[in-house]
Amino acid sequence: MATTASDHGHDVAHDDHEHHPTAKTYWITFVLLAILTAVEVAWSYLGLSGPALVVPLILMMVVKFLIVGGVFMHLQTDLKVLNGYWFTLTFGTAVVLAVCVYIIVFAAFRWDI
Amino acid sequence: MAIIEEPLALPSGEGPEKASNPMGAFSRPRKPTGLKDWLTTVDHKKIGIMYGTAAMFFLLWGGVPALLLRLQLARPNQGLLSGDTYNQIFTMHGTVMIFLVVMPIGAAFANYLLPLQVGARDVAFPRINAFSFWVFLAGGLMLNTSWFLGGGADGGWFNYAPNNGITYSPGTGIDFWNIGLLIVGFGSLTGAVNLITTVLNMRAPGMGWMRMPIFVWMTLVTQFLLLFAIPVLTVAQLLLLFDRQFDGNFFNVAQGADPLLWQHLFWIFGHPEVYLMILPAFGVVSEVIPTFARKPIFGYPFMVFSGIAIGFMGWGVWAHHMFVSGIGPLSVTAFSVATMFIAVPTGVKILNWLATLWGGKLILNTAMLFAIGLVTQFTLGGVSGVTHAIAPSDTQQTDTYYIVAHFHYVLFGGALFGFFSGFYFWWPKVFGYKLNEKIGKWNFWSMVLGFNLTFGPMHILGLQGMPRRMQTYDVSQGFSTWNMVATIGSFILGFATLSILYNAVYSYNAWRRGGRRNVGADPWDARTIEWSIQSPTPEHNFDVTPTVTSLDDFWHRKYQENDNGVLRRVATGEDLAQPGERGNVHLPAPSYWPIFLAFSLPVIGYGLIYSLWLCIPGIALVMTAMYGWSLEPADDLDDDSHHGDHDDHATELAGV
Amino acid sequence: MSDTDINVEDIDAAGADAAVAVADATTDHAEDHGHDDHGHEEHYTSLGLSNMKLAMWLFLGSECLLFGALISAYLLSKTRFIIELVAGNPNVLAGIRDGENESLVQEMIAEASVEPIFDIPFTSLSSFILLMSSLTMVLAHKSVSEGNYKNLRIWLATTMLLGATFMAGQVYEFTTFYREGLTYNGTVFGTAFYTLTGFHGAHVTGGLIMLGSLLFLSTRNKMQKDRAETVELVGLYWHFVDIVWVLIFTIVYLIP
Predict the structure, then answer these.
(1) CA distance linking residue A71 with residue C107, whole number of Å
(2) FRET label pair with B419: which of A30, A63, B15, B135, CA 20 to 30 Å apart?
(3) Is there a contact between C120 and A44 if contact means CB atoms under 8 Å apart?
(4) Which domain range does residue A105 map to?
(5) Could A101 and B12 be called an inter-chain contact, meaning their C-beta atoms sit closer than 8 Å?
(6) How would residue C41 be classed by pLDDT, with cut points 50, 70 and 90?
(7) Does residue A37 lie in a domain region?
(8) C-alpha span between B211 and B198 (Å, rounded)
(9) Amino acid B390: pLDDT
(10) Each residue of B372-386: pLDDT tens digit?
(11) What's the CATH class of domain B41-579?
């Protein structure tokens, strides 16, 4: 029966649980996020300054963003559904647009370029 | 880019199971008639008509005060309007024209035509569609109540900080402007989500990306621009709201804040905004020109991709509004170059229209004339726009009448001419009769005359150095002659614009006296599938969902090549047209909640201005409306006559 | 008829109650088709994706621009605030532009005692709580799509509890900062900080209301497998709010 359902790969609503990760995956993801958060906090206590402080923090932030979006919000598994890339496409466009536009604004202010 | 050739079986998450497990706590209106029908309708066609009607009302509302401005400027040293009134009028004129006229007319066309052109029964979320309209109306009305409650906003349509702060603008005008537009913004946002979903997900079988009419493409780009630009304006206005209502410091220079933040946020919204005003008009003329040039649009893929390119590049040019604000040299250079580049995709479009006209068997009726009017006048406005890309030149022109001339050429001579073309073109589809051609030609030529007399001289005035927003001038400044010409032009333009309303009444009466004979499905021998159904559009749109096999599908069903490769008419539009008689189609049920929710929001707005206590009932009303909306049954299941197909996209039910 | 296949498959997975409901539904569905030969129209979507889910992602895309603008407004206000603070010391002012003299700036801020010294351990804990609520939310969705309504209620309630704890933490934080002298209208920094975090808090509160509604509907047996997508949509919103906090936590709290 399960194979019958996956044949109808377009049927998102009813098929979700076929494609979506298992509970175990969710728990592992959560542990990973918790560890990352702990590392972030520890890093901020190292007494570093400048890029040595900021760059790793930003990187870890981005990784957390991607993990939550990919696993908890199912973007990664949705990519396997027919046309599921549209979710990533619309949301991703917004994220990229926001980052570009606001970095330009920030740069214009901070460094008077 | 999957083109799905046949309908897939797709229980849409909340399919028929509903029947056994209804969520509903309230009943929906049953077969309302008259006014109640219009107030509770979720039909995209009626909502489109209401958008258009409201926008035409606001066109008068914002246009007549503009004539007062022109009267004041007709001669030097006049005292017709005080400086204060003058400030209020030009601010409200700009705000009303942009947010309550041009944007909603675009929404009117999108609402009416989008589902028809993609072959859908309705938009994806009919109730949200109704909400979008009512919230636009509620916000627009609230904005304009400021006239009766202490005067309108007076800081120009972009209301720069810190002038918009409580220190320099102690009255309530700015608050009404701010909160009214916030509310209007909700409507644009929900409308954008709705229409994008409709285009992406509700196309008829076979309607692949490269078979969508250009109007659909341009509307799609427009709605994406709205989706991403409106929240930026929302934030700018929220910051202003916190500054004004709760004594915040975002634009408080005394605390070291940088008011340039407002300019950045406003123009990050503001530049996509100008493209989202013009792109729907581009879409309209891209349908009109091929129909009356009797040729397919030249370079369809270029038209599509240049539209998308404009959409993306529109995000990288905002600071060209700020060349004199003291931004750094690198920014000025980058934004100059970007602004010059964005002229390229626009130029591609103009070239393609011209190439479509070239060698065509032109039918110069009113719709076509207005379309050609857009191409010509928008090009003039576009060329003066490129001069703004050159920063040194722009520094000279900033805040002069040259700017006023430029944006009226693109927004009036461009967008509004395009929309008028659309009115003449789709009027028979919407109402079943054509607008009178003779009055239409008068309408067009007097508008061209009035428009160019009004705004042409402003180029000269601007280059002579006349600042915009100046209440009056002295005879020694040498602005007198051209100002008088502009004033005369503006009155010609005013009456010319009004004549479309006269035309509507005249044509309606002629149609009524002529026995209410409708024009039939395809009066223009047109190209796209909305002409394959009867005029006026039946309530259920298509009897049978069409299967699309090519771009300009309807045209290709009428004209095919014979054995010698010569294009021959094989059928008339009337032969192919669907009879529009299929009864028992299950349509989305009307609902009380969209209008209820929409008119609850201004209650909170007035509360923020006058007394926070009023916000409590406001929030209570909003919560009631939201729960009422969520718990409303997707369909009125008791209504036996409506047990046909569940077109309501019951998924809408989820209360989010 | 492919619909039927799927419904049968559902029955296998679901409990007995659900099986009855689905069976009823199948019958109804057949009747619908009897009424009208175009019963398929509403099932057809061009991309094969659910309208609601697509709309939700579009809305979240829009929210990105919203929070982006708020975060930029915060960062800019903070920069301006520091420049204003050290304006008397041109050396430091020049240093800020070059990214130097950070420790000196920190000292000056500490001396002026207008910016609160963030309680990082406390905020880390509340960040952790919000992250955990994302986990329970996704487990709630998993439960409902498997037809396990008891677990659905447990996980929804846990998510609400964690979300409410986060909000309580924010209220506590705001009161503490306020007592330490960081008022909303005192400085540019205060306005920007409270607006950004308050806006996020408002989003969490909105999420809590939605979760509460889901829980209520579930206790009335109205939030069943056929509406798993509703739970997923609320989940998407909830995770998005969590993502925003991930950004705020790093940008506002960890990076000085």
Answers:
(1) 42
(2) B135
(3) yes
(4) 83-113
(5) no
(6) very low
(7) yes
(8) 16
(9) 92
(10) 999 999 999 999 999
(11) mainly alpha
